[in-house]
């Protein structure tokens, strides 16, 4: 801070008196990052945040051309892709960055689980992070519909019908989500409102809580590193860790640019509510393991409809995951919890296998 | 005396808190009620169509084929069985509402979303669908196909 003070002198002092720059600088300097063999996993949160910033920037740019109605949405995206200079690039970056953001968020979640970073006093960090992942998936689900193409139309039909399956309140909530009992233009405008207004507002709140908690409690050191005393030291967050973050972000940006250039986002056929679902229809990859599970469930399990069992099962699994800091008590008491490691690895394997089957199993068999 | 004043003050404070609390509660309700009603979509003209006349000639529909038609604002599927019979069903899969199609290779109605199979009577015979497709009544009147909901 000293150099800044010399260079900007009176301007710095003027601002400091009003904004408290000195206190902010001290806060940044005080933060440090533990160095040990798992340090690399600390970069995932920042990476997810960087990808989110790309989403905000490209999302705002897309708003300049997008028209949220069943009559115009598909055509406006077509126009954006074909006529607008670099329209294809902005949309492809938005699509790729979205997928990578979900991917890094999932990696972040599993690394936090395996490193037991949710332990006291970081329960609220975990809960807010879990909420952010849910919001990110809601972003993906609502954004998928906006181009109003065939795949999106059926994915939304299935996705919102899943809500209807939930007993008692399901069909009412489904109706409110869709703006009616079917997926129509009303659904498109609603999803647009969710995607560009409601969800961004929620992200702002939960991200604020999440980052504040991270700042307040600092990085969690995994229990096995603590037990073995294998921590090699600490690294200043500012500037050492942040500069490494920056390198990662630049690499990510280069990868996204390459992916967008070589594999631009598709648009496909315009949605038609009176055509059969296309063969090989599938949701975004991060819903694939659930989609594939629903395919394998029989029509009836005991006295219940198969899909109800599947959906409630995933609901319960999600609730258990949310409450992990309160369920997994052994590591809270400083004891090793091998069983929990196996549970997490089991979940990862399940997701990978079912996702793999979703992409390789013959859809017509 | 001092106690009394304190007591009076406390009850006055309690009264004011109660008034403020109730007004605040009332205000919140007065905002939430219209907003929640606003979010529930109005009951749009649900399809009340009980019959629909299709603009295709019965003889143009080949055996062992199926096609989607509009039944009001809902999709239906018209099937001509390999033996030549015309049948019609609601085309929304009973599993998760995807729109079904006719599989000529299997002579079955099939849903691409979760691989659900229905036979030529609309019965769910394989895969996750929990219930049969709703069957409609098909009548051929000269050059017209008239499809109606079962009375």
Would you kindly provide a written description of the structure presented here, covering whatever features stand out?
By secondary structure, chain A is mainly alpha-helical. Chain A has a two-stranded antiparallel sheet with strand order 1-2. Chain A is globular, with a radius of gyration of 23 Å. By secondary structure, chain B is an alpha+beta fold. Chain B folds into 2 domains: 40 residues; 99 residues, Rieske Iron-sulfur Protein, CATH 2.102.10.10. In chain B, 25% of the residues lie in helices and 32% in strands. The longest helix of chain B has 38 residues. The chains are: A mainly alpha (365), B alpha+beta (151). At the A-B interface, helix 7, helix 8 and helix 12 of A face strand 2 and strand 3 of B.
Tally the beta strands of chain B: 10
Radius of gyration of chain B: 30 Å
CATH architecture annotation name of the largest domain in chain A: Up-down Bundle
Strand order of the largest sheet of chain B: 1-10-9-4-3-2
**How many domains in all of chain B?**
2
Beta fraction of chain B: 25-35%
Number of alpha- plus pi-helical segments of chain B: 1
Number of helices of chain A: 15
Structural class of chain B: alpha+beta
Question: How would the global form of chain A be characterised?
Answer: globular
**N-to-C span of chain B:** 83 Å
Strand portion of chain A = under 5%
The whole-number mean of residue pLDDT values of chain B reads: 87
CATH topology of the largest domain in chain A: Cytochrome Bc1 Complex, Chain C
The radius of gyration over CA of chain A amounts to 23 Å
């Amino acid at each position: 801070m000293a150099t800044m003070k010399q260079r900007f002198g009176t301007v710095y002092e003027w601002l400091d008196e009003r904004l408290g720059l000195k206190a902010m600088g001290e806060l940044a300097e005080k933060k440090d990052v533990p160095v040990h063999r798992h340090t690399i996993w600390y970069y995932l949160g920042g990476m997810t945040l960087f990808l989110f910033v790309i989403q905000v920037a490209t999302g705002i740019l897309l708003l300049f051309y997008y028209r949220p109605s069943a009559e115009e949405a598909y055509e406006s995206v077509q126009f954006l892709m074909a006529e607008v200079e670099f329209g294809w690039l902005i949309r492809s970056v938005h699509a790729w960055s979205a997928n990578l953001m979900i991917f890094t968020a999932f990696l972040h979640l599993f690394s936090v689980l395996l490193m037991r970073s949710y332990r006291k006093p970081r329960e609220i960090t975990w809960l807010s992070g879990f909420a952010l992942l849910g919001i990110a998936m809601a972003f993906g689900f609502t954004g998928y519909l906006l181009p109003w193409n065939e795949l999106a139309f059926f994915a939304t039909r299935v996705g919102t019908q899943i809500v209807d399956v939930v007993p008692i309140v399901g069909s009412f909530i489904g109706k409110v989500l869709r703006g009616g009992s079917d997926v129509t233009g009303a659904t498109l405008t609603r999803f647009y409102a969710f995607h560009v207004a409601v969800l961004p507002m929620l992200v702002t709140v939960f991200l604020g809580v999440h980052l504040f908690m991270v700042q307040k409690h600092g990085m969690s050191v995994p229990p096995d590193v603590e037990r073995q005393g294998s921590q090699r030291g600490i690294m200043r967050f500012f500037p050492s860790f942040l500069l490494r973050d920056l390198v990662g972000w630049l690499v990510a940006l280069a990868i996204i640019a390459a992916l967008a250039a070589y594999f631009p986002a598709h648009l496909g056929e315009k949605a038609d509510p009176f055509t059969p679902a296309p063969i090989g229809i599938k949701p975004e990859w991060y819903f694939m393991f659930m989609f594939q599970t629903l395919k394998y469930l029989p029509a009836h399990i005991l006295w219940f409809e198969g899909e109800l069992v599947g959906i409630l099962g995933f609901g319960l699994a999600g609730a258990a995951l949310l409450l992990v800091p309160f369920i997994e008590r052994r590591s809270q008491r400083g004891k090793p919890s091998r069983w929990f490691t196996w549970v997490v690895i089991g979940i990862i394997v399940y997701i990978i296998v079912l996702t793999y089957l979703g992409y390789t199993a013959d859809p017509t068999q | 005396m001092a106690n009394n004043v304190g007591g009076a003050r406390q009850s006055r404070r309690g009264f004011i808190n109660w008034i403020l609390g109730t007004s605040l509660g009332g205000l919140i309700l007065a905002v939430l009620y219209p907003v929640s009603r606003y979010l529930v979509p109005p009951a749009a003209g649900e399809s009340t169509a009980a019959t629909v006349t299709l603009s295709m000639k019965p003889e143009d529909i080949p055996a062992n084929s199926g096609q989607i038609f509009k039944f009001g604002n809902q999709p239906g599927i018209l099937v001509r069985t390999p033996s030549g019979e015309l049948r019609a069903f609601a085309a929304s899969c009973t599993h998760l509402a995807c729109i079904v199609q006719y599989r000529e290779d299997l002579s079955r109605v099939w849903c691409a979303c979760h691989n659900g199979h229905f036979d030529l009577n609309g019965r769910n015979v394989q895969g996750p669908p929990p219930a049969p497709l709703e069957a409609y009544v098909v009548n051929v009147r000269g050059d017209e196909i008239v499809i109606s909901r079962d009375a």
